[in-house]
Design a protein that fits this description.
3-stranded antiparallel β-sheet; about 40% helix; about 20% strand; globular; Aldolase_TIM
């Protein structure tokens, strides 16, 4: 069986469309806000990865969201650019249509809640009103594009008969993709499989549209529910890099894709993902958001292909397939570790960056190279992860605030004193402050140089590599008016890495301040 789709043409039944919502559902979760340049970097990386659709944002949410969706629409050439809108929000759909207008391939994704719980308490609407908004929302979206997606928010907890009515109305009024999300991560794989089978069997016109699945991970079942949905007939997967998203997150793109590739005997579907790029995109996102993946994370965690057990090591040495069901190289891992030293030149450094998957502008390469030379003087051995840490630090776009320098006087016999130099909106600011230890003094100096009301909610320090000369990687979480942001910094000096992390978090907070979330629709 095939389906004719406005963006993808004729689609075979085994074709799976990858719909990435890292920049929308992922980015709106606490602490994960990105600025415009960071979103553009991620969008370009996702297009290069082979993602079919990028949900670029919620244009009506703020001027910043609108601008980021519009800029992504202007930038991408192959991937469908999608804007989110509420079905009953006339301005939502107009904003989405205007934002995606420059895209070569564009989509509007409109949604409304359909479960009894959501309709009664969130929307305060009767079912018939919801049906009317589904009809009007999809008709309005078709004024801007032929590629229209409709979602039944809390679809997995919607009464089957009413869900069928909603889907029928959406199709009749122009939707070409129908998404049934497990919004609160409540369902099981069998239940998701049954929902899609029911809709395909009962809804008139179901054979003309693509069914989509969007699963949250509240019970740790997001990937399993996605695979169950595929078995039920869904052919679009909504997911995020590293599984980021509201609460416990979304289904992880890298896990779904490698499940399909590794168990092709069971999931005989095709997709377009360039899997050796998975690790690089994962690390890019972790750098931008300052949220590292846990070590035992499937596919992209640093322990995903590590073996410590003697029995496992023995098996791996004899035949890697004894304990590895995919090759590390297939998802972007390499075996290189030792790299450059203090005598290495700029050309060698650029070659190493290319080997590690970085494509950087000349000015960023130069800044990273200068920091590399300083690091190489401090460390006897420079590893790939050292280079990744300092390059990631330089590629963060500190729009308004940049770290310049830090001088410390500290010891057990006197209060610590920090003299900090920042560049704020192009102007140099210097502050000298005493504190209860060097980190406290440095953070107080930031507060003096750039006054703010945010409070420190988390401060953690880890090592990038092994050894006493390892670079420190520091994470700082700031909280202001209920908004949380995380920043990361890396440096051979632990206090400098902490300052870099704090400054990174402040820049993200400035982005977060201007973002507003639209209120829920209500009668």
């Amino acid at each position: 069986m095939t389906i004719d789709h406005p963006s993808f043409g004729r689609i075979a039944d085994d074709r799976v469309i990858l719909f990435d919502t890292t920049l929308r559902d992922g980015e709106q979760s606490p602490g994960f806000s990105m600025n415009l340049d960071e979103k553009l970097r991620m969008a370009r990386a996702l297009e290069a990865l082979g993602v079919d659709v990028i949900e670029a944002g919620f244009p009506v949410a703020s001027p910043g969201d609108f601008e980021s969706v519009r800029r992504i629409a202007e930038t991408l050439s192959e991937t469908v650019v999608c804007g989110l809108a509420r079905s009953g929000g006339k301005r939502d759909i107009e904003a989405a249509g205007e934002a995606i207008a420059p895209a070569k391939r564009r989509r509007i994704h409109n949604f409304i809640s359909t479960s009894p719980l959501h309709m009664k308490y969130k929307l305060r609407m009767e079912p018939e009103t919801v049906l009317e908004l589904i009809a009007s929302g999809n008709r309005a979206a078709r004024n801007f594009t032929d590629d229209v997606e409709w979602s039944a928010e809390d679809g997995s907890r919607t009464e089957p008969d009413f869900l069928c009515r909603c889907v029928e109305v959406a199709i009749r009024n122009g939707a070409t993709t129908i998404n049934i999300p497990d919004t609160v991560g409540y369902s099981t794989p069998d239940e998701m499989r049954a929902i899609f089978r029911m809709l395909r069997e009962r809804v008139p016109g179901a054979e003309k549209v693509i069914f989509s699945t969007h699963n949250h991970n509240d019970l740790g079942l997001a990937v399993a529910n996605t695979l169950g949905s595929l078995e039920g007939g869904a052919r679009q997967i909504e997911c995020t890099i590293n599984g980021i998203g509201e609460r416990a997150g979304n289904a992880a793109l890298e896990e779904i894709v490698m499940a399909i590739r590794t168990r092709h005997d069971k999931y005989a579907y095709s997709e377009r993902i360039d899997t050796p790029k998975l690790l690089g995109v994962s690390r890019m996102l972790a750098n931008i958001t300052s949220f590292d993946v846990q070590p035992n994370k499937a596919i992209v965690g640093r322990n995903a292909f590590a073996h410590e057990s003697g029995i496992h090591q023995d098996g791996i040495l004899k035949n890697a397939q004894t304990y590895e069901i995919m090759t590390p190289e297939s998802v972007g891992w390499t075996k290189s570790s030792l790299v450059l030293g203090k005598h290495s030149g700029r050309a060698a450094f650029r070659d190493k960056l290319s080997a590690l998957g970085y494509k950087l502008e000349d000015d960023v390469v130069q800044q990273a190279f200068e920091r590399f030379k300083v690091l190489a003087d401090q460390k006897k051995t420079v590893f790939d992860d050292d280079i990744r840490a300092l390059v990631d630090d330089e590629t963060r776009d500190h729009d308004r605030i940049r770290f310049v320098s830090l001088d410390l006087i500290a010891g057990s016999k006197r209060p610590a004193q920090a003299t900090l130099e920042l560049k704020v909106d192009g102007d140099i600011r210097v502050a000298t402050v005493d504190g209860n230890g060097p980190v406290d003094a440095a953070f107080r100096a930031i507060q003096k140089a750039f006054p703010h009301e945010a409070t420190l909610a988390l401060f953690t320090v880890g090592a990038v590599t092994e050894g006493t000369d390892a670079q420190a990687r520091t994470t700082v979480r700031l909280e202001e008016d209920g908004k949380l942001v995380d920043g990361q910094g890396a440096d051979a000096d632990t206090v400098v890495s902490a300052v870099r992390a704090y400054v990174h978090a402040l820049n993200k907070l400035l982005v977060k301040r201007v973002r507003t979330e639209p209120e829920a629709l209500s009668a």
